[in-house]
Amino acid sequence: MKTSWKKSLGVLLVFMLLLSMSACGSKEAGPLPAEEKVPKINFWITSQTYDPVRYEIGLLAAEKWRELGFDVETTTMEWSTMSSQGMKSHEHEVFMIQWGGKAERIDPMQWLYTMHHSAEAGEGGYNIAGYLNPAYDELVEQFVTTMDMDKRKELAAQAQEILAKDVPQPPVVHRILTHAYNSRDFSNPTFAMGEGLNSFWNWMSLTPNGDRKTVKYGYINDIKLLNPLMTKDGADIYILKMIYDPLVRIDPDGIPQPWAAESYSEIDSTTIEVKLRKGMVFHDDKPVTAEDVKYTFDLAKEVKSPYYLSKIDKLQEVQIIDDQTLRFVLSEPYAPFISNGLGTMGILPKHIWEPRFKEGGADAVLNWDNIPPVGSGPFKFEYWRPNEELKLSSFTKHFSPPKIDGMIRIPYAKAYGVVQGLKAGEIDAAGWSLLPLEQQELKDASQLTIGTAYDQGYYMLHYNMRKAPFDDVNIRRALTYAIPKLQIVNLVFEGQAIPAYSTVAEVNKFWHNPNIEKVGDDMEKAKEILVEAGFRWDDNGAIYFPEDYQVKKFSD
Amino acid sequence: MSRDNILLKIDDLKLYYHTTAGYVRAVDGVSLNVAVGERLGLVGESGCGKTTLMKAILRLLPANCRQMGGEMYYKGKAISSLSEKEIKKMRWQEISMIPQSAMNALDPVYRIGAQIKEAMKTHQKGISSKEIQERAANIFELVGINPKRLRDYPHQFSGGMKQRAAIAMALVLDPNLIIADEPTTALDVIVQAQILERINALQQRYSGSLIMITHDISVIAQTCEKVAVMYAGKIMEYGKVRDVLNNPLHPYTLGLKNAFPSLLGEKKSLISIPGSPPDLIKPQPGCLFAPRCPFAIAVCQTEDPPAKEEDGRIVACHRLAEMEGLKVLAEDETIWERKVHAGD
Amino acid sequence: MKSLSKYIAKRLLQMVITLFVLSTLIFLLFRLVPGDPVSMYLDAGMSAEAKEMLMKQFGLDKPLWEQYVIFISNLLKGEFGISFQYGKQALAVIGDSFWNTLILMAVSLFIAFTIGIVGGAILAWKRGTRLELAGIIGVLTIRCAPVFWLGMILLSFFAFRYQLLPLGGMNTPGTNFETVYAKYFNLDFLKHLILPAITAGLSAAATPLLVMRTSMLEVIKEDFIELTKAKGLSDREILFKHALRNALLPVVTVFAVQAGLAIGGVVLVETVFRWPGMGRGIVLAVAARDYPVAQAAFFLIGAMTIMFNLIADILYAFLDPRVSLD
Amino acid sequence: MKFSTKLFGFIKKDTAGAIGICIFIFFVIVALFAPLISPYDPGAMHFDETGALMRIHPPSFQHLFGTTWMGRDVFSQVVMGTRIALFVGILSAVCVVFIGTNIGLIAGYYGGRIDNIIMRIVDIIYGIPFLPFALILVAVMGPGISNIIIAIILITWRNTARVIRAQVLTIKQRAYVEAARISGASNFRIMYKHIAPNVIPLSLVYIALSMGTGIMTEASLSFLGYGAPEVPSWGKILFECYNSQAMFIAWWWMIPPGIAITLLVLSGFLVGRSYEEVANPRLRER
Predict the structure, then answer these.
(1) What's the alpha-carbon Rg for chain B, to the nearest Å?
(2) For residue B109, how many other CB atoms are within 10 A of its CB?
(3) Axis crossing angle, helix D196-223 with helix D145-172, rounded to the nearest 10
(4) Is residue C22 part of a domain?
(5) CB pair distance less than 8 Å for D127 and C19
(6) Do A383 and C176 count as a contact with CB atoms less than 8 A apart?
(7) Contacts of A544 (CB under 8 A, 6+ apart)
């Protein structure tokens, strides 16, 4: 009996030891000077539970980098920690973000200027990589202030070319959105770039085939807040776009079109004149006036609306010329104002917001759930039971009324809920991109048709050029060439994605530059770059800096 | 004693417990009669089978206890032949009991009144609730408790009151036979005396029979007319209380009498019987008391002593004839201990 | 009855203290760790200034003690602050989900204790039989199985394979309810309730069942049960009126503990069955770093636990006259 | 000899306890030899002859429990998951019981104000809903085995402390403790030399019972998406399965980890319960 007791204690100890041993890896030093060894790369990946896609991509890329001789450690992190330490404080070495392909990003201002200009490199800025290239800065400054479209297109092409060579933060893949809808009862959907069926234009074009005219629409998450000045959530903004009319809407091809404005024109490089459409009314039957438009922009500036602040900070003032005419005066020439400012800001009814603001100030306006939201858009708010459903009905007094009677948005919390809802006919469409397995599950549901839309957003790797070895362009290029983009497409996305090479997506035909260097999927090339730059390897295959190493920050 | 006068007749009853180790012979060939209105005391050490015997009368024995022989007759009817329905009807209506320890015998979650009334409601269907209340109140007054306290819960009663409540409960249906199973054991001496007094007083009014089970021979002396001395599942001696206590004819009775302070006035030091009751699974041959008996002779070790009846007295001892002489010897307390040493 | 109200007052005071400590704990937990709510929303295209604006809006720019003072003074007013995500009072965000959870909890506890009490009594009655053995093995297995796994199995079996019941949620989408009554009292709601309630109920049934069984075994050995039998009562009366009633007492004690555990189970069950309750709410709020909502939900769940404890205590006093509540 | 008889003697008496010990030893062996038993790296993706990823393939000889959506071997994952489960279960149980026993000893031995304060704290902790608290704690401190264990410890020491305190209160009354006190032994000495040995058997019961709590908590947190990110735990396997459409199709992905959790928790429960009867006869039949 005694021996068995001792034995089991021993077994337990050995077991603990083994467990702790398995946690540490083995390290061996090569003959080359240790201080010249390329430092370990700490790759932050999201947990598999938060985003399996980023987790899998991370593992696949790290595997290839190890093949090149880099010492890569993958650290799994909570997204909130990663975003605050990486996106905000820029303390990362390399990590990945999924950038959404919203309509207002079709004009590549965000991709080319905000994410790569030196002005955004400070804490909290969007130049996460810390890409400080004076030549590039100059190029994109021109891009932002030039109003001439052809000139802008040319500048954008040049910027894309530089970024593709320097790879401060390479895009990896674009998803292909796969959305399903009930083609038996409804027809004429719009699968818009980056948004699929979630697009505003889909709700305008969708046409009932028979008597059932209200579309039941499935989604994973619920909306959260319908206050246009405060919301930060993409799902909320999709709904707000339906309830509120902006002056200009970005059409499915990314071109700004007059909407609540009858027309707009540039008076000079800093002044835009807008003619308001006649006869528009809010959902409470009060007319939409120039006063409302001016008040909307003034209020957004006054209360520092988080979502709009960056879009309208170049707006100096809004002048009312007459009942139907307004002038927007900018502090400096700023080309994206039409699509990002006029194109996103929904007109708010002054008679609702002004009393609220006067009474409680900015707090009363921002800390407000704005239920029911009253706009002038083609859809009218009916009711919202959080986590259960939201109903909008069509606004028949709108100048361009939708063909359907309305929509009910149902959050299913889980993908399987959406899929089973589609299958059972509980919902008519879903803005949730279906995985191949889920599509297979739906193959017997004959009423469904599946359509696709390319995402102009992407999964993007962010190196940190503030830290070695990412300050070296050869390292960045080699690492990027090693990323198995095609394999990622096949394994992680089951083919429902395409490799991304340019910061402006291929699907964004107007702005995309097809003649850039396509970095990726080439281990040979990756090795070649390192060898040419003089990098060395020890017997174990670990990589070392060249002798008399000089950092080369950018390509020539 | 005429035959029709007999209320309960026990005839060579054998009750064995079935256990994994074998049969435990808790009651082994007991014969007893209880006449109408008679008060019988059943005395013996704990574990001698007296409680088993009494439970058998109400058919309350656990499933592993089997009747291996003999029979009990209530009003001439074999109890084992009664149907489930008949036995349920008989319980409490005909035969009730005062439980061993009233502390645990009352359901703690119901009012005492409700528990008393429950007996009436079960057996006397169609009786008005007003009458039930009246009778419960009467019976409480009878046992000396304020009827207002019918509304109390058991935990609000003292030990003596609980016992009295239990007595009241046993009396409430005016049964023909009451079995009192050690009604005073759990109580302190003063309360014991009160309870016994109460039982005696009640006997003036109550005409039914009583079986008083106890290990305390003095209790029998106070309350009973007849007494049966039981040892290891057998009756050792039976007779009128006065006869048996004044003139015991069995060595065990002698020992038992020595073990309790005399209530009959003789001042003596107490002598308890050394040793312990025998193993009932594999009883030795001969008299079961022989190993502890200071007067045991050779025949006692081999032959079961026959029960001899004389003048309504029954004694089971081989040395009955020599008893007068042995009694004198038994006065000496050392004789009991010597036996134990010898037995070792 | 006077002592009862005094007792409840005393317990309520204890509850207030516990909840106070609880909320302080949660307040600190959320603020002393890396990651802030604002950075969760960075992708929306906000400028640095806008982010600061948000921090100010949420009151996160103030020093910790000041945030705490605000938090406590809000708490005294019954407020948990404005939700970071929903732009309204945290309690208003939780709103209906509180009732959804309460209904699920109550029904599953009812199922658990019905199964526990009846099953425990039966197993005690059938002592030593094969039924008892099978019952105990089954109950122990369910007790040790993860409740979410049980839910997954039931879901894929009854809802997916045989399509007898809905695949989660609380109401079939697309129905607008005129009244609160209409929302909860209809067949559709009941159908949605069955699987989650049974999952949570089954999983919580083991402990009361085992306790009931042992308690029952003890009670039927008691003297008063024998006396009841001697009184000529039928087996049914003995079992249900006397034995069950007495054996219930320890089970009621278990109820208090079980209610606390069941809330944990409900978090998981709500997640599996997509039940729009507080449990799922707290998971979502925590993931989004929506402190006020997470705090409010946690607070309410804590209060619910303590309330169930209180109910168990009162129930116990009601069932057992020996207990006086002071 | 005596101690081990005391420790393992119950096996002879109690079939349920023996079954529990057998299950536990089985899992310990699996954990020890996990790398040898598991045929593949649990993170490796598998491809068929045509080079296509083997997504949710049913069980076969190559893959005993089939494969996951990402073509990973479920059997290997379950085998490797045994280590995490045992590690979390044993470590958290030992810590919980160590802390709980000491607090219970102190509260019970010193009594008075110290006892009062400790028991108030215990009352408050009983008011904390366990899983939501663990969820918040792990979410804010970041997912990871150590944080999960910390969350378990912070809450569950209350059970052990309460039981041990009650036990100490009765032991304190015994004559030899009084004798030790009179002979001038220090408090520390009385507590650990004279009282502690008497409560250790009860502590061991709680180690067995706490192991189940630990394993279940880890699995639950993993299922809610807060599991330790880099290790293949049973809860995480279930989380992945649940979050993909495969839950309804790939039973081989869903059933084995659940059975593993159930069995291991059951073994702790059985051992604890039957050992309890040996350690604390008063609790028998309870």
Answers:
(1) 21
(2) 20
(3) 150
(4) yes
(5) yes
(6) yes
(7) A30, A32, A33, A36, A37, A38, A535, A536, A537, A538
Task: Look up the CATH architecture of domain B3-94+175-336.
Answer: 3-Layer(aba) Sandwich (3.40)
User: Using CA atoms, how far apart are residues B19 and B29, in angstroms rounded to an integer?
Assistant: 20
- Are A101 and C45 in contact by the 8 Å Cβ rule? The answer is no
Q: Assess contact for D228 and D146: CB atoms under 8 A.
A: no
Instruction: Return the structure tokens found at C228.
Output: 């009841």
Q: Do chains C and A touch (3 or more CB pairs under 8 A)?
A: yes
Q: What's the number of domains chain C is made of?
A: 2
- Write down the pLDDT at residue A207: 95
Is it the case that residue A526 has pLDDT exceeding 50? yes
Q: Does one domain contain both C111 and C227? A: yes
Contacts across the B-C interface (CB distance below 8 Å) = 66
CA angle A508, A509, A511 (to 5 degrees): 75
Q: Is residue C286 part of a domain?
A: no
Question: Is C223 within 8 Å of chain B by CB?
Answer: yes
CATH number of domain containing C195: 1.10.3720.10
Close Cβ partners of C37 (under 8 Å, ≥ 6 residues apart)? A80, C58, C60, C84, C288, C289, C290, C291
Mean pLDDT of chain A: 88
- CB–CB of A415/D240 below 8 Å? no
For B158-279, strand residue ranges (E) read 177-181, 209-214, 226-231, 234-240
Which amino acid does the sequence have at A267? Answer: I
Is the domain of C252 the same as that of C155?
Answer: yes
Residue B44 DSSP class: -
Which chains are adjacent to chain A, needing at least 3 Cβ pairs under 8 Å? C, D
The reply to whether C111 and C164 lie within a common domain is: yes
DSSP result, C190-240: HHHHHHHHHHHHHHHHHHHHHHHHHHHHHHTTSHHHHHHHHTT--HHHIII
| CA angle, C290 then C296 then C302, to 5° | 130
Q: Two tokens at C178? A: 């005129």
pLDDT digits (tens, 9 = 90+) for B278-306: 777 777 777 888 777 777 777 888 888 88
Q: C316 in a domain, yes or no?
A: no
Same domain, yes or no, for C115 and C38?
no
Burial class (CB in 10 A: 0-12, 13-18, 19+), A509: exposed
Could you tell me which residues are beta bridge partners of residue A519? Answer: none
Residues C77 and C160 in one domain: no
Is the CB of residue A431 less than 8 Å from the CB of residue A422? no
User: Which DSSP state fits A38?
Assistant: P
> Which residue type, as a one-letter code, is found at position A490?
N
C97 part of contact set with chain A, CB < 8 Å: yes
Q: What is the identity of the amino acid at B335?
A: I
Instruction: Look up tokens 């159930």; give the residue.
Output: D262
Residues C11, C136 within the same domain: no
Q: What is the pLDDT of residue A95?
A: 94
The bridge status of strand A406-411 relative to strand A94-99 is unpaired
At D102-146, the pLDDT tens digits run 999 999 998 889 998 998 888 888 878 888 888 888 877 777 888
Backbone region of residue A365 per phi and psi (left: phi > 0; alpha: psi in -120 to 50; beta: other values):
alpha
In chain D, residues with a C-beta closer than 8 Å to the C-beta of A415 are 243-245
Q: Which of D230, D245, D248, D253 to mutate to test the interface with A (most CBs of A within 10 A)?
A: D245
Q: What is the mean pLDDT of residues B255-282?
A: 63
- Is it true that the peptide bond before A171 is cis, omega within 30 degrees of 0? no
Where in the sequence is the domain holding C89, given as residue range(s)?
A: 2-94
ipTM (interface predicted TM): 0.78
Which residue type sits at B57?
A: I
Residues C116/C205, Cβ–Cβ less than 8 Å: yes
Q: Are B308 and B316 in contact (CB under 8 A)?
A: yes
User: What CATH number should be reported for the domain whose range is D67-285?
Assistant: 1.10.3720.10
